[in-house]
Amino acid sequence: MSSNNTDSRFLPLLVTINGFLVVAIGAFGAHGVKALIAPEAMQLWQTGVRYHMFHVVALLACAFFSTTGEANSRASHWLVVAACLFVLGIIFFSGSLYLLALTQKSWLGMCVPVGGVFFLLGWASLTISFFRR
User: Do residues 88 and 117 touch, judged by C-beta distance below 8 A?
Assistant: First the structure.
């Protein structure tokens, strides 16, 4: 199986799973968690959902650009790297905010900047992919 064929399945799968999750998490926050947590914690939750959604769109861009005729193996490699970094960013940034909102465990706040770095590296990798076309 070629790398491009694998990418054409892998990247849309990341998009759809994360799209499903962000809608479910957002709805859970709006309808299930909101009454149980403090307003400050709800702001953390909403920030997590917002960044999660932004990066679902970034994952969608990775999937889209990997299927265009211009994508070569070097560009596709960087698109997969970007997508994986975006997913790590979602886990560390948004995931930490979700858990922090629910548990109020302050040590989770240390994971949030790590997620931010993953997001930045993902955007840098996406940029590199355009120069590799």
Answer: no
Output phi, psi for 2, to 5 deg: -75, 160
Q: Which two tokens stand for residue 46?
A: 């909403």
Phi, psi values for residue 132, rounded to 5°: -90, 0
Tokens 């302050």, residue? 106
Q: Give 52's contacts (C-beta < 8 A, 6+ positions apart).
A: 18, 21, 22, 25, 90, 94
Instruction: Show me where the domains of the chain are located.
Output: 3-131
Q: Whole-prediction pTM value?
A: 0.90
CA–CA separation, 86 and 67 (whole Å): 18
Dist. CA 89–CA 120, nearest whole Å: 9
What pLDDT digit, counting tens, does each position of 40-51 carry? 999 999 999 999
